[in-house]
């Protein structure tokens, strides 16, 4: 397989390449196999020269730059339209790389590494002097993750440096879970997209601050509070997870302060019993439709047939929250494709896997919650 400019590709299997037509962004399909190294090698070369490469992880697609190059990291903020005080995450491919970028490794962090690395867990450490301020939002701490996706690991190893990467989307938009989403948002703004298929988890990594005692969850994800506490005991939850952040908040981790995950439509969460939620959403849909608005509903397999909205999309079965999480951002993006004006979304438990789903939904809705009685 060879690396090709997106504008030269026709009749391909990937919508990502078709979206990139007539742009300079390069697209390469790879599974990181030993016999399929050209894309990995080219991506690593781009990173070493200060360029930007979007790549798959097991959570979402990341937009990577050389984590030791402050000027390269500035390009991430420019490409995404990302506020400069919103920190990035450094991605590593071996535990021993951690010593270059953090000042100390607390015992609690070692326990969490043994249990969850490589995987969808990011930890906040006191940073070393090698980490530029552009990575940390000028904080004294740095977020670090060891991803398990084979393409991500191969790219980091080939580059020979930590990769600074937030999600590969326009700031504020739903995070990308496939290369087509990256191409839609960032074609022509970045050097390369490595297309490794759909992300497995679909929600960004759990972020835990291990520079404080007890450790504190700053962003929920696939590694749940319950899973963390089985390994290290008591774990706190930062109030910013549930409360609308103030303008004065200085975010210690990605996603703490700004509106995220939002489609173009206004999103409202509707909370209550299944019957009450269905009745409330149908009543709201009638009012909106009379006002000339196109209404969408983010539902589940169990409830999708009960709604009378213009478009009803299921994120999966309520009995499998992992499925809901994996599909959430894809479904939010689908509402944009059909020009929905208002989206009403069902809610989920505020515990276990549901904590991450509700955190993303609340930010997507700007914390607008409607009670269905």
What are the SSEs and their pairings?
Blueprint: E1 4-5, H1 15-19, E2 26-29, H2 38-48, E3 53-55, E4 62-66, H3 70-80, E5 89-91, H4 98-101, H5 107-116, E6 121-126, H6 133-136, E7 141-145, H7 150-159, E8 163-164, H8 179-186, E9 192-195, E10 206-209, E11 216-219, H9 225-232, E12 236-237, E13 266-271, H10 274-290, E14 295-299, E15 311-314, H11 321-337, E16 342-346, H12 353-364, E17 369-371
Parallel strand pairs: 2-9, 3-9, 5-7, 6-10, 11-12, 13-16, 13-17, 14-15, 14-16
Antiparallel strand pairs: 1-2, 3-4, 4-8, 5-8, 6-7, 10-11
Structure overview:
The chain has 373 residues and is α/β, with parallel strands linked by helices. The chain is 31% helix and 18% strand. It contains twelve helices and 17 strands. The protein has a twelve-stranded mixed sheet with strand order 1-2-9-3-4-8-5-7-6-10-11-12, sandwiched between helices. A five-stranded parallel sheet has the order 15-14-16-13-17, sandwiched between helices. The longest helix is centred in the C-terminal third of the chain and has 17 residues. It is globular and about 60 Å long. The N terminus is likely disordered.
Produce a short descriptive summary:
This protein is α/β, with parallel strands linked by helices and 373 residues long. It contains twelve helices and 17 strands.
Backbone shape? globular
Structural class label: alpha/beta
Distance between the termini: 58 Å
Major sheet: order of its strands? 1-2-9-3-4-8-5-7-6-10-11-12
**How many strand units?**
17
Helix content: 25-40%
The Cα radius of gyration reads 20 Å
Strand content: 15-25%
Query: Number of DSSP helices?
Result: 12
- H and E string: EHEHEEHEHHEHEHEHEEEHEEHEEHEHE
Poorly predicted runs are 1-23
- Report the mean per-residue pLDDT as an integer: 90
Question: The biggest beta sheet, please?
Answer: 12 strands, mixed
